[in-house]
Structure formats: C-alpha cells, structure tokens
C-alpha cells in the first residue's frame, strides 16, 4: 500500500454518484500523485490528551448579538496572509509532517495581528516548534502549551533556508541570541460559536478517507465502509455561516492556498491560489468539530 496512490477512481466515482452531496469531490492539485503513505504522514493518531484547565480572560459575545455570518478573512484580511513556511507542504519537505505545529503557529501569528500585538502580521516559525518540542506538539493542546511555556521565534530571527536543520537552534540566523515570543495564556474553548468572534481557534478534527477528496462546498463525511476514519489533523476555525439552510464552520487547513475554497463570505468558490479554507457542517458534530474542545495560544 505504501507505493499506491491515495486517490483512486473507484472512491472518486462512489462520491460523485452520491445524490444530494453538499460538496464537490475531486482530486485536489496539492494531493495529485501522492501515495497513501505520503498523505497518511500528514495525519496524526486520534489524541487522548486531557484538557488543560484554563479560564478565558476575554468577555464572551452573546449568541443573540452574534452576526449570522462571520469570517476573519473578511474582517481582517491583512492578518490572513499565507506564508508558504506556515503550510504542511513546506513542513513535509523539511521532513516534519504534522498539522498541529503548523496551524497553531499560524493562528498565533494571525491572533497577534488581530489584537495589534504586531503592527504588521509576522510569521512565527512552526518548524522551530516541531524540532525543539522533541515532537511533543502533535495536537492543538500540546502545540498551544509549547508556545505558552517556551515561545517561538518569528522569521526575522530564524529560517532554516536549507530545510536540513534538525537540532534546536540557540541563535538567530544573524548569530544574535534567539528571540522567543510566548503566548500570554492558554485558553480552552468550549463555545466556538461565541469565541471565534474574538480569535482564531485551533482544534483537532477527525479525518475520514473522503476528506482528502474535498474540492469545494459544505463538507459532510460519507457514511460507508469504504470511507474509514483515518486519524486527526489540526485546523483552525476562522468563522461560520449558513447557506440554503445548512449551517457551517469555516476552517483553515495546513494544506496551503492551492487547496479548498477562499474562506471569503463574498464568494466561497476557489479562485487561483487564494484557497486554503473549507466549509464543514455545523451543528451535527461533523468530524467531531462541534464537541471537541479548542485551544488558543493567546496573544
């Protein structure tokens, strides 16, 4: 199975022939030619980690006053600019597959921009966390805790340009002392609907085989013995909405801008390289997204 391609026409045909499917299946460009093992290397085992008991210091927004549709991509487009080094494509090339350091570092970058901690969005280094945490950053909780406890540098300090450094650096690229930025708190998120109006939230969602066939639309996994549960990935929740009576979350993945939709409320269709987002059904616990606790490495 190691050398077999992950995507096969039998599975694609099964998905395409399902009536009233709310999403469009296909073979995304980012996965074309990838073997089963290459894609499975980006998926983690289901986490059994216990929650970190924390209390949010931010005022909650009441459900009654919440807008019907919301996306940080619309609200703060200046904070939602992709860096190639904050994608799993880059990390896998660096030999460090895994979505959790990537997405938690990306959310930390975005949230610091949202809260005005950085005048202009900075890119905080996910690769540093993956290396220096000794691979103990395999889920949203662990990655958030690492940023709080140890801190990570931004890329004005450290970039492994050759993608070959597998030891924890003690200096910036210019040989100055490494500059680490810590989060101010770890916030455990139970109510994502209210909390996403304050910040981008890291969550671990369950991934079924058909997840990797997603092109666009509102995703609901297909119940079939040919569509087994594969594991989990970390994504971030950046908004929510409703279309034709179907409520959804807007999530951002680590697969980069050539995957998925735009995340923009003014048009979710895929436009060039402006993707990286997915709509996933809300209110039915799709992929465990409604029930799972989220985390924020607070700016």
From TrEMBL:
Cited Pfam families: Peptidase_C1
Origin superkingdom: Eukaryota
A single BP term in Gene Ontology: proteolysis
List the Gene3D superfamilies: Cysteine proteinases
Q: Name one GO molecular function term.
A: cysteine-type peptidase activity
Q: Where is the Peptidase C1A papain C-terminal domain?
A: 66-297
Q: Which PANTHER family match?
A: CYSTEINE PROTEASE FAMILY C1-RELATED
Family label: Belongs to the peptidase C1 family.
This chain belongs to the protein called: Cathepsin B
Q: Tell me what organism the protein belongs to.
A: Hexamita inflata
